[in-house]
Amino acid sequence: MTAAVRLPAAGFLALLALTGCAIRPEATQSGLTLPGSFRDAAAQQPAQWPDPDWWRGFNAPELDRLMEEASQGAFDIAVAAARVRQADAQARIAGAALLPTVTGGADAARRQTGGGNRRTTSYDLSLSASYEVDFWGLNRNTAAAARLSAQASRFDAATVMLTTQASVANTYFDILTTREQLRVQEENLEAARRILTVIRSQVAAGVATGLDLAQQETVVAQQEAQLPSLRQSIAQSINALAVLVGRPPEAVDVLPGGLEALRVPAPSPGLPGELLARRPDVWSAEASLAAANADVAAARAALLPSITLSAQGGFSSLVLGTLLRPEAQFWSLASSVTQTIFDNGARQGRVELSRAQQEELVVEYRRAIVAALSDVEDALVALRETTAQEDLRREAASRAQRASDIAEAQLRAGTINLITLLNTQQTLYSARNQLVQARLQRLQAAVGLFRALGGGWQPGLAARF
């Protein structure tokens, strides 16, 4: 049992000709002129793009494990993946209008007529199809807009994944840094207590005063008071890390490890034009703009008449046994043209709305490109300057340690006063903490450069969502 619509050859050619009149979306262009190179990149340095597992370059097995947990359980990544599935479903719904709608039905009815007992039974079996001829590209552009929006959602998911990875790395480095600060602070406290013991001996021998003793006791108390806040920061950072990887805080811990064991890889950015092909947020902005262009074309097509073809066929009989006989067959063909005469400007308003949205997304596309270039420039400067700063802080800490050792030895010999010793102590404590902070800033600058370069993401990797 089938029903079909046959068009003569001339009619088919006419349809093709009318289809060629379909309204097409505009091309997606930013209108920006890209620079030839990055201002803060090394001259003529070949591109060295990050790998998909870019964090492995830090030589931190614990970080590798955390990244694996985040890829499996991160809430933000799971939400982004669900949004991709929603967008895919919307694309399938929008694409359904490109094909005919076919329905089937079966009906049995029993009727009584007149005042007597005359009753009849009828049986119907039918199949119907309807199809909106997409002369002006309304359905095609609507489906294209939904498909491009689904692509944009995939690029958004890749951006979320990259952001989550960077957050995991930065939080992990922050934990290691705070633990290193705690270790340094405990060493500072031990040194202060050691000097306190010397001063107590000097007070007992009459070569130091009670004021000297009180001042050093104050130093010890100040150093000891900094320990609780560092321990609190470590615990809270681990809890924040648990949220990032999607696990309860009790199930997450970070094994002890030193900052000095970490390497700081430094990829090179290549050319600005190459960068834009590796940033999922730029691809998302481009896909969203292309979808908006298709929406404008669809809104313009909605101003034109709608043409629908329909066909119905089947069998109808008063006796079930004769339902499928040739004489029980029926069929019908129909076509309709519909044009809205007056809607108080609603459809024209939708065109203007779509155009305004498209203009907004042009600006957002340009913003994404400029922001990507700016991110790389910032990251290059940050990595270069934090590397230089760490080297200088290390030299300063070394010199402060040497000065502190000399001052402590001279204090034991009684050749300097306590004020000089207190100054050298404070300089050493400050230099140690600043070195740890400089190390963290360099690590985070490296993470920022990986993120600015799009991580190891490439357009083909969007299919994983």
From TrEMBL:
Belongs to the outer membrane factor (OMF) (TC 1.B.17) family. This is Efflux transporter outer membrane subunit. Keywords: Lipoprotein, Membrane, Palmitate, Signal, Transmembrane, Transmembrane beta strand. PROSITE patterns: PROKAR_LIPOPROTEIN (PS51257). Its main location: membrane. It is a lipid-anchor. Residues 1-22 form the signal peptide. It is found in: Cell membrane. SUPFAM superfamilies: Outer membrane efflux proteins (OEP) (SSF56954). Gene3D superfamilies: Outer membrane efflux proteins (OEP).
